[in-house]
Amino acid sequence: MLKSNKHVFWQALLITVLIFALGLVFGVYLEGIRNDNANIIFYQSEANLFDTLALTYLLNSQELSCQELENVYVNFADKVYEEAKNVREFDDSAKIISSTIYIHKKYDLLRTILWINIAGVEDKCKDINSVVYLYEYNTDDLNKKAKQSVFAKILNDLKDEKGNSFILIPIAVDNNIYSLENFIDSKDIKEFPVVIIDDEHYIYNLTSVQELEKYLK
Amino acid sequence: MVEFITWIYLFYMFIALYFLILFTLTFIQNRKEMFDYPKLTKDYSVSVLIPAYNEEDSIEGTVKSILDLDYKNVEEIIIINDGSKDKTKEIASMLEKKYGKVILFDKTNSGKADSLNQAIKLAKGELIAVVDADSYPSQDSFKKMVGFFNDVKVGAVTTRIFVREPKTFIQKLQSIEYRVIAFSRKLLGFLDAIYVTPGPLAIYRKNALEKVGGFDTNNLTEDIEITWHLTFEGYKVKMSLEPYVTTVSPNKFKQWFKQRLRWNIGGMQTISKYKKYFFKKGMLGFFILPFFTFSLLLGVLGLGIFIYRILRRLIVSYLSTKYSIESEVAIITLQEINFNPSILNFFGLILMILGAVFLLFALFYVNKSLSKKDAPFVPVIFYSIVYMTLYPIILITSLCKFLKGGKHSW
User: Fold this and answer.
1) B window 141-200, beta carbon within 8 A of A
2) Is this complex's ipTM strictly greater than 0.90?
């Protein structure tokens, strides 16, 4: 009886490994589903971006007004903003497979293209209001983390108040996007987080929603 | 890439799951023998030793509970008065005069272990029963414990401990705890991995005690040390689940905390003494020692990680609140709450449910043989939460005191 009782240690180990492996497989499957969903949403946004870019070319042919273009930009930026928020949640919950990080990166890339594109048409459409928020996605600096969370709330409140009157583009700067890095370098920005309003005003310190409103045209 | 912290969480979950499955399998494989006890083939003579220090309130009750036993061959009841400052000596003297089997062994104070060692030399029985002076063995206890000594390899036998008339909240929590411990100790008994023969009632083979040189006078938990020593020498330690002994438990939080510190420091002293036998010497080196040591290390590490992460969150929350107030925005928004549980949340929840089921089953099972069943559901859940929260604090305090060294008091 004693000898057979000792086998229970190995039996328990075997069952534990089995259950644990099944749990991990289930975890990978579950996170995979979330990943696939995020990817599908992303592909839709990607198509929307190309549509938006194509519209920009029409600006030269006089068939499209700056106001119409701004509306398209705003809608697109808002859509991406909401989607990216969901991806961020998926990303925070992804523990075993980490591919949502790449989806997050792709969203940042979309927004970088949007930002560069808006900068390109600002000469022609001077009334377009853009608010670009540059932050660090992976920072260990607790003060910066807190500051970024408050900046996000301020911008969210600003968006709630001013609605479609400006294009909000939050972009994480630490996702190794070379075009973004170059664009930031060209603007000589060294410190994050920063809020850039209409490519003119660089706000590094936390401020109230009312103060930010003053910078908008 | 999977984060380091995720690996740690997964490791903890694996260990928890392993022990849950180990205990469940052990129960399934031995469920028919849980309350079994070997029939008496010989009337072993038993000397009962009652170490007593300031036990005027309970000593008479303890002696009477032993005199009431249905085991006939109790050779003697030796009350060891360890220099009590109250009326323990007078009461013991009165009992000695009244009952022929009672012997008073009066000595100057030298601690429980030394008192027992001195009394072992005087004892005439083949078996030595150690009974705390505030504990009352059930009438059938000896009869249902002594049979285990038919196996010559058995060096000690222990039994269930119940809290006598739990009144305060802390006593009720301990009452639940003792019942769960009884269940898991029985399961460990099937694996020859019992790591303590607690003071309220344990019976030892006298020549086994003599072989190991008696109780360790330098250890705060002589009952843990003697069990490890007996296992080290190749003796088996068994648990008889059918009988029981009732004892008093601390009724105030401070006393309870102090008692737990003593248990943990004693455990650490024992680990330190036997550390060179890691993965040597049978169940002691391959299970008891690693089980004890890793529980300690994992507890400390877990608490460290928990504190680190909580502190970080608190700092971020504080700064975020401060900045939010300065910037006139909401302190907390719905957006900051993540409604997507991670797979670790699922695993954790499943483990918690399985743990709770095990706990409730253990209570139900231990209660099954009792007429009075006092382990209601709410205190059980509360006990689990309170105990799990406080245990790491006790662990850290014990570790600090142990590492600091010096003489630890009772």
Assistant:
1) 190-192
2) no
